[in-house]
Here is the input.
Amino acid sequence: MKNNNFRKSGLAMAMVAAMGASAGANAAVEVYNEDGTSFSVDGYFNAFFVNRDDKIADTRSSDVKMGFLPNTIGFNFSKEMGELTLGGRSSFWSTINDSLQSPTDTAIDVRQLYATVDGSFGQVLIGKDFGLYARNNIFLDEILMGFGSPGAPTGVSFGNIRTGYPYPNPSAQITYRTPDMGGLKVAAGILEPANTTGATSEQSAPRFEAEATYAADLSGVALTAWVNGRYQSSENVTTSESIDSTGVGYGVKAAVAGLSLTASGFTSKGDVPVLITDATLASEEDADGFLVQGSYTLGSNRLVLSYGETDSEQGDFESESTTIGVFHDVNSNFKLVAEYNMFEQTVKSSGADAVDADTVALGAIVTF
Here is the structure.
């Protein structure tokens, strides 16, 4: 398939990480490819039977929900123009969890709507895409196509968001990516800043994010390592109080034969470690978290063990999540999932239990 934009999109990275390179390469349908112009469509559909034991409320619930990744359809464009390749991607992400709250008005959000310019210099992306901070932390999560920890009632589950990494918000951005430099790739961009200091505030500079990734094969061991970061500042012009939001994410993944081991983490300040939004913060408090995972693939089956924690002064919570999952490939475009998750969250300032839930999720995933 001759479509660089799809291979570089967030959804494509997720597919490759979770399904393997061969399945990811087949995850789009090429509609047109002539005279240097191509157009392709990709889709991701899933549903899970979810049974949850809520130990705090002393209730057990059964639901039909989607998993950590929403149901998605994406459109990819590419056109060769001399020494440049112009491209673009638009993807639409939809929940199925609001079927009783909004029976015929399913929420649709656009997480990717961008153009790219590729050349020997690398790539420039303009538009809306996932951020760079915590990007590989989430895209290389072994349970990305699973369910994970509980989330919003009518939205996706949270996977390992708030138990190991924050969410790399889709944001308006201008981002530059280098060519592959012997396994090293670097991306840096300016993104729309968040208002964290109230109504009378200013953000005199954009949000800055960057990520460096290194991939190599060391005597049969496939190694991927990364580090990413974020910085932004917001100032209240009335009180002159400012909030500097900083974060650093990192990780390493090693795979040999069917065994894969991943360890990642983050540390942040002035940033609630779930997602960055226009929300007033009282102070610059710390947060950190880590995620360790192992998986083993035997034939068409992949067994995953996952454990993550987050400790947040800013969000006033401590959380931990343990997941055991089995992924079975019926074929390259159809997958079955069985998962058991144990999630706990406490209020850090009081020690009170906020969430204590065990979840069984049985799902099916279809991609094209």
In short: The radius of gyration is 20 Å. The first helix runs from residue 4 to 8. Confidence is low (pLDDT under 50) at residues 1-8, 19-26. DSSP finds four helices and 19 strands in the chain.
